[in-house]
Each structure stands twice: as C-alpha cells, then as structure tokens.
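Whiteboard transcription, Tuesday session. T.W. wrote the structure tokens on the left side:
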C-alpha cells in the first residue's frame, strides 16, 4: 500500500535524520537592567509596537511578556486618547 517506510516520502518530519529547526526563545525587551520604561509620552517607543495599519502588535510576535504587554497596550491606548498617536494610519 502507500504506507511503506520509503526514504523520500514527503511527510512533515524533516528529512534525512536532521534535527528539527530550533527557534531560540526571545526575551522580553522591557525586563532586565537597562530596559526602557513603558511611558505613554514616549511615542517613538510605542510606535514600534503598532502595525502599519495602526493595530497593536501581539506579544507572540514582539516577545513582550504578558504583564508588560498589558502595560504597553494601556500606554498605547492612553497616547491615542490624548492625541499623541493616531488610531488609524492611512
């Protein structure tokens, strides 16, 4: 049948006995010594965590911890409310 142990059948497990791709865990950029403080007035820092469409980038992409992501989202929303950051980028 089609379930043999052939060498080049394209399963999902990589080929040739190689190790699977290992992605290194990123650390939160807001923890540790010398880390920037999350502040709603620092629009340059906050704009790095906003997409081209004006949406807040999720923590799985930016590697920000859950606690700091909540602080970051609150700071972005506060800056938007005060007119320091735009709601939508056109």
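and on the right, the sequence the group agreed on:
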């Amino acid at each position: 049948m089609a379930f043999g142990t052939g060498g080049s059948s394209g399963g999902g497990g990589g080929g040739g006995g190689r190790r699977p791709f290992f992605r290194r865990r990123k650390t939160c950029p807001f923890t540790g010594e010398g880390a920037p403080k999350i502040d709603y007035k620092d629009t340059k820092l906050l704009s790095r965590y906003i997409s081209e469409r004006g949406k807040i980038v999720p923590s799985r992409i930016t590697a920000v911890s859950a606690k700091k992501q909540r602080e970051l989202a609150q700071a972005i929303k506060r800056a938007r409310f005060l007119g320091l950051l735009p709601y939508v980028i056109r």
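Someone added at the bottom: The helical segments are 43-47, 59-62, 66-81.
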